[in-house]
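Notebook entry, structure prediction.
Reason for the run: the old model in the group folder had no record of what sequence produced it. Starting over properly, with the input documented here first.
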Amino acid sequence: MRRTKAEYDHEFYLRHRVPILQRVKEYYMDNREQRLQYARNYYLEHQEQALKYAREHGKARHAVLKYTIFTHYSNGEPRCAHCGFKDIRALSIDHINGGGTAHRRSLGSSEKFYYWLKKNNFPDGFQVLCMNCQWIKRHNNSEFGNFA
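New structure, fully documented this time:
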């Protein structure tokens, strides 16, 4: 049976994946400034399309990431570790030993925090809490820092 060009190219890529990716990485590093400038210019020329795409797809991607993280830290179905509440709109990730505000600020945003959790293979020290339990915990532990 004869293969199509696309099938051949795919098989070639799979056989030579590591050196191909290494060359791509080297090319990017050697031409980083030009690539970044090209990306900036492209974005400026197509800003409206880029923003439309981000609005349509960004929220969905973030929702999937959030669901993945909550599922992991809940051992299956997203739910509050304290009261069992299941509505994902009111669930959040809690730093078990405190320090969440400072940690999120160091990363820049809660969305970056979710990406950080995934990138670091879901480290220990976190749990899922509903917002009520989160605030009760903060009150009981006197975790009232400067939240401005």
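Summary: The radius of gyration is 22 Å.
The old model has been moved to the deprecated folder.
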